[in-house]
């Protein structure tokens, strides 16, 4: 994600154990089928499931119903420090549909934006599971990844995201034995924004230096962040879409503090590339390619194909290109081409494209300095977990995705205009009240050999 994600964490009126495991609500992962395809044109169906991220879950005392975290504040008697908090508190199971608006049917996952039950839930983040206690790990070099998406009910200011991060397959249980919940309860999240709102990092509560958010009643930030390589396959709403590799100088989930995290004025001094190298068709000069009634018509479902090509066309070669295709109404749609002064007509992400884009837009090129596509490929060698989420943006109102950003320079400057949404759009209080019924549907996930997952 481009800005620091301010994800929502709220407490329920039931019980469970923080990094311990609670027993008030049974944890039953909603099933979701996916398909693995081969060059012969055959695809095999795999029965999988999804799990809700631990940050959304109710956190309470291991032996009772007392909240360890309420609103955006820790109970300092239960959580005077990170290690003690992990002993005292437990994460509970989730009512996926009733509390979080998360439902599955066959190969389709629906994420509702706002769900009102005992309390109001806003947004969600889920991971694909290989089994009950492990995330499914993807190795996508010289492979492609395909899914259908329906964003027709996703307006300005929202982000229906599908992406990969270099999390531990078991959610960190092996590396951090104080983490008793693991992937079964959605622990171990990380990304290149090194988010500070993660309540447990490395098996300890992130209570040190915790500050409640001024704008989000459900979130705050601690001293530590959780960093790792991130491949944003799809960050989008009905008005804009971006595909963005981000890389870090480290491999696997890493807890950061201080300058390492790249916060604020130190954005380009940290261990991760927060900007990434994005291909947003609108930002790259084609303002009629993706949106309502456009070439890729976001008023109805379509297929997104992403190919991860290597220099030698093998799974062991260096990642050299990320190519995008779309399929809608039976027609294969090639990606838009760059139309920016001083840039060639690129239509995919390569290191050459990234360097040219950074120069044309006057952006800092930490993508290159931290390893570029080769580093992204190394993350896939190690294995990356699939994330799907819907969220709003308390940092900059999602303007970086679908509007003009930054707002203090002319929108006519190269790279500033990113979508047709107004610069006044995307305010969380506004979208949460006016677009509460928004949702995104991801379905028909397929992965495998190049050219095997969609009809040509």
What does this structure look like?
Helices cover 11% and strands 33% of the residues. The chain is mainly beta and 456 residues long. The protein has one domain (28-53, 96-449): 1,4-Beta-D-Glucan Cellobiohydrolase I, Chain A (Distorted Sandwich), CATH 2.70.100. The protein is globular. The chain starts with 19 loop residues before the first strand and ends in a 7-residue tail after the last strand. Mean pLDDT is 95; it is low at 1-18.
Mean pLDDT: 95
CATH architecture: Distorted Sandwich
Return Rg in Å: 21 Å
CATH topology: 1,4-Beta-D-Glucan Cellobiohydrolase I, Chain A
Please report which band the strand proportion falls in: under 5%, 5-15%, 15-25%, 25-35%, 35-45% or over 45%.
25-35%
Residue stretches low in confidence (pLDDT < 50, at least 5 long) are 1-18
Query: Number of folding domains?
Result: 1
Helical content band = 10-25%
């Amino acid at each position: 994600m481009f800005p620091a994600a301010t994800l929502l964490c709220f407490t329920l009126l039931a019980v469970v154990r923080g990094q311990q495991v609670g027993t008030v609500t049974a944890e039953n992962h909603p099933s979701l089928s996916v398909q693995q395809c081969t060059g012969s044109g055959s695809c095999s169906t795999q029965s999988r499931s999804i799990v809700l991220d631990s940050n959304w879950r109710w956190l309470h005392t291991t032996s009772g119903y007392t909240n360890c975290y309420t609103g955006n504040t820790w109970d300092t008697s239960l959580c005077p420090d990170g290690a003690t908090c992990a002993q005292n508190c437990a994460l509970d199971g989730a009512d996926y549909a009733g509390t979080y608006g998360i439902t599955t049917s066959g190969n389709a996952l629906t994420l509702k934006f706002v769900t009102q039950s005992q309390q109001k839930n806003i947004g969600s983040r889920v991971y694909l599971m290989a089994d009950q206690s492990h995330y499914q790990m993807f190795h996508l070099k010289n492979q492609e990844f395909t899914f259908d998406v329906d964003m027709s009910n996703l307006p300005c200011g929202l982000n229906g995201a599908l992406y990969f991060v270099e999390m531990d397959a078991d959610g960190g249980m092996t590396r951090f034995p104080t983490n008793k919940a693991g992937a079964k309860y959605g622990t171990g999240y990380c990304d290149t924004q090194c988010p500070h709102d993660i309540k447990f990092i490395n098996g300890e509560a992130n209570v040190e230096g915790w500050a409640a958010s001024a704008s989000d009643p459900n979130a705050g930030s601690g001293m530590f962040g959780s960093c790792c390589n991130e491949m944003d396959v799809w960050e989008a709403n009905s008005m804009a879409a971006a595909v963005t590799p981000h890389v870090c100088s480290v491999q696997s989930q890493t807890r950061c503090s201080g300058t390492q995290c790249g916060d604020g004025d130190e954005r380009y001094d940290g261990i991760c590339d927060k900007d990434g190298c994005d291909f947003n068709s609108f930002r790259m000069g084609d303002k009629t390619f993706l949106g309502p009634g456009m070439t890729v018509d976001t008023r109805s479902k379509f297929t997104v194909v992403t190919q991860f090509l290597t220099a030698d066309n093998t799974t062991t070669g260096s990642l050299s290109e990320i190519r995008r295709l779309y399929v809608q109404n039976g027609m294969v749609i090639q990606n838009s081409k760059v139309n920016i002064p001083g840039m060639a007509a690129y239509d995919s992400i390569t290191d050459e494209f990234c360097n040219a884009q950074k120069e044309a837009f006057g952006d800092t090129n930490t993508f290159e300095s931290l390893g570029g596509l080769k580093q992204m490929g190394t993350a896939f060698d190690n294995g990356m977990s699939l994330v799907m989420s819907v969220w709003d943006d308390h940092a900059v109102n999602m303007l970086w995705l679908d509007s003009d950003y930054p707002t203090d320079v002319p929108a006519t400057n190269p790279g500033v205009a990113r979508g047709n949404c107004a610069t006044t759009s995307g305010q969380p209080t506004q979208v949460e009240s006016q677009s509460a019924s928004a949702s995104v549907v991801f379905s028909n996930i397929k992965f495998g050999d190049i050219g095997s997952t969609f009809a040509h």
